[in-house]
Please model this.
Amino acid sequence: MKIALTVNGEPHEADIWAGESLLTTLRDTLGLPGSKNACEQGECGSCSVLLDGELVCACLVLAAQADGHAVTSVEGLRANGELHPVQRAFVEAGAVQCGFCTPGLVVATAALLERVPTPSDDEIREALSGNLCRCTGYAKIFEAVRLAAQP
Ligand code: FES
Ligand code: FES
Model:
């Protein structure tokens, strides 16, 4: 089946299998490997993207459901060649180790700060509860979120 969607502000068309996930379409058809494929079961958050501004796991969304909609992946957070403030904060806070969880965490954090510009620790914990990191112990990730949230 054919779908048409906007990804990171650009219109795209794709010829997909009806059961294909949005994550597969992003990575394999549209050449956007930033969203990671770890569990493919909605457990880890490494595939987090925004669908019409809402945070979703791209592995749980059918590409067909994105037909006619707008997707933002981690690649789309940069503006004018500059890293998004959340991306900069993750680097500055040393919140990236293997980096596998980082794209999903960056997208989830950007979505949180869009909604709640200065979140409490509980709000950060709640917002990032769907994003698993096996490396950092989360302290540096929290530091990065607080850094990005600074006015
Ligand atoms: S790959 Fe989608 S939640 Fe893990
Ligand atoms: S930095 Fe390795 S999983 Fe998070």
In short: The chain has a mean pLDDT of 97. Residues 37-40, 42-47, 57, 59 surround FE2/S2 (inorganic) cluster (ligand 1) (CB under 6 Å). The helical segments are 22-29, 85-92, 102-115, 121-127, 139-149.
